[in-house]
C-alpha cells in the first residue's frame, strides 16, 4: 500500500498485469518499456482510475539512458520501494549449434545485463534506506533447459544466480529479494519468440490452460506485501498440466 513500485517491461503481459495489480493495491507506479505510445495509454487508463503513475520510455539495454532517467527522477519518485525486473524475452527455439548470434545477444543483453543495470541503479538507495524489495521475473526455464531453450534458459538460470547472489549481498539489511519463476504464461512472449508467427505462438498454449499475467502479478503483490520479516525468496508457478519446463500434458 502506497509503495513506489518500478516495473520494467510494463507495456505488455506480466509487467502490465503487475502494473494493474500494484495500482489496485494502492501503490504508486513507475512504468518503463520501449513503447512510449503504449506507456502513455496505460498511464492514462490507470490515472483515470485514481492511480499515480510516472512513465519512462527506455530500452533496458541502454545503460546511459537508464542511468539518466533513474538519477533524474523527480524528488517524490526517488525512493523506490519495489523494483520488478520483468523486461525480457526469448528469441528462437533452434538447437544451440544452429542459433542466431544476434538473438543470443539480444536475450543476454536484455534478460541479464538489463536486469543488472536496473539493479545497480535502484538497489543502492534501498540499501541506504534499509528498506526495499527486488522482484526478479525468472522462469521455470532457469531450473532446467528444455529442447531449443538453450540460451534463453541460460539467461533465466542467470536470473536465479543473480537473485541468490543479491540476496546474500543485502542479507545484512531489511531489503528482500524474490525470484518469481513462471511456467507457461499466455502473453506476447511466444509471438516475440517466433518473430511474429502467431500460428506457431498459439500452438505453444494448445491443449493446456496456460497461466495469465494476472496469476503471476497476484504472487508479486503477495510477496511485496508479506510482513517485513518474511522474504519470499523464490516461487515456481506452473500451469496445472505442466510439471516442468519440458513436461506438459496436453488434452
Ligand atoms: P511480453 O512480450 O508480453 O512482455 C515483455 C515486456 O518486456 C514488454 O513490456 C516489453 O516492452 C519489455 N521489453 C522487452 N525488451 C525490452 C527492452 N530491451 N527494454 C525495455 N523493455 C523491454 O512477455 P511476458 O510478459 O511474457 O514477459 C515478461 C517477462 O516474463 C520476461 O522476462 C519473460 O522472460 C518472463 N517469463 C515469461 C513467461 C511466459 O510464459 N510468458 C514465463 C516465464 C517468464 P517494450 O516492447 O515496450 O519494450
Ligand atoms: C517462459 C516459460 O517455458 O516458455 O520463460 O520458457 S517457457
Automatic annotation (TrEMBL):
Q: Which GO terms fall under molecular function for this chain's record?
A: oxidoreductase activity, acting on the CH-OH group of donors, NAD or NADP as acceptor
Q: Which UniProt keywords apply?
A: Oxidoreductase
Q: Which domain of life is it from?
A: Bacteria
What PROSITE patterns has UniProt attached to this entry? ADH_SHORT, PROKAR_LIPOPROTEIN
Q: Which Gene3D superfamilies match?
A: NAD(P)-binding Rossmann-like Domain
Q: Which Pfam families match?
A: adh_short
Q: Has the keyword Ligase been applied to this entry?
A: no
Q: Do the record's keywords include Signal?
A: no
- InterPro entries recorded: NAD(P)-bd_dom_sf, Sc_DH/Rdtase_CS, SDR_fam
Query: What PANTHER family would the database entry show?
Result: ALCOHOL DEHYDROGENASE
Family to which the UniProt record says this protein belongs: Belongs to the short-chain dehydrogenases/reductases (SDR) family.
Record protein name field: NADP-dependent 3-hydroxy acid dehydrogenase YdfG
Q: Can you name the source organism?
A: Prevotella communis
